[in-house]
Queue: 2 jobs
Job 1
Amino acid sequence: MPHPQSYQIPLAAAEAEIDVKKSRFIASLLPIQSEAEAKAFVETQRARFPGANHHCWAFVAAEPQALTGLGSSDDGEPSGTAGRPMLAVLTGAAVGQVCVVVTRFFGGTKLGTGGLVRAYSQAVRAVLAETELEQREPQARYRLTYAYGLTGTVEALCNRFDVTVLDQVFAEQVQLELALPLQRCEPFEMDAREWLHAEAELVRLDDAAQPLA
């Protein structure tokens, strides 16, 4: 299996417009973290430009190398001329957690299938050029369950590896959901085994939920 690569995420919404043979292509970009957020953004753009001929879209909900969380639509354009080329630009640029909607106002001149592919691809590249992007490293996620008496040790372990705490539940035991860059996983797991002495359960959530300690 190929090792996950670093990727980029947008930090804010952006927009760009291109004209191709009198057709207007307005590319609107939004940072997203789920398919539901992407679909909601598409509907927002439909309402914003009700007179447009097409609202073609593509989204990458997580990492661009992921096999799930991707989607696209030609929205009435000839099959394969809009959504898939838009998605190819996003994944080719290694951009994740993003949705782009390209709204087209037809200018009276047909572009042909090749022209449409070029126009929609160009529109996505144009909005990416206007977007502030931040580099991200692939993250591993864990669930750590432990007794309250281990709190000090767990805090020291998390501080040592600069772990991000995504969620925490305090019940009979403490349960944390953690994230850290993949390159830190092996030493983190080794230290967790050594420091926690099998008194806690560490489960890798993004790797078939296998207990590690």
Job 2
Amino acid sequence: MVTMTKKRPALRIVAFGDSITRGLAGEGVTEAKTYRKVLQRRLRDELGRDVTVINAGADSDITSLALHRMERDVLRHKPHWVTIMFGVNDAGFFRPWGPPAPFPRVVPEQFENNLVEMIGRITAVKAHPVLMTPVPMSRHYGLAHLPYYRERGLNGLVERYVRISHQIGKKKDVRVVNVFRAFQQVENWHDLVPDGVHPNAAGQAAVAEILFEFFGDVL
């Protein structure tokens, strides 16, 4: 008697985030080397799953703007899982339209509200949200000379947003993948972020590895 193995259904994962998720701003990064594509290949090849990882990353994006594109870029794909990685731009003094400002683009309280809203919209369509903390800014960052960074540390404000993500994860019972901390535990991790913000090809592979370990446990 032949035992038939039931084929597991195809999975759609939407990677929702900013330019780190889009990936192409990183040194030496092609579409095939983004963490999205590396993760998709590994889930297919090593776990034997029919998985598609969909790009919903947008350059210079912040949570307040990303909420406006959720239906178009995330929910219409009918995802099973949605990874959410924002924070560096939200916490940053950088402004894509002009000189730096003396305050973050999204204040902490609004960042928290925005993430909670994202989670609510994702769970409303029966998908699983996953919060990802951002990649830390490296010493190569072009605005590292700003007084706030010199006085309080380059990632001092980003760490506050990282803590918010963990707090939301506990309140909403949502998994948090701590990319921020995982990078800082790698020797010479600054070399993975040569422009200060965007992971290079090796950095994208490192993000993919972190996510592969997560999905390997939950899929």
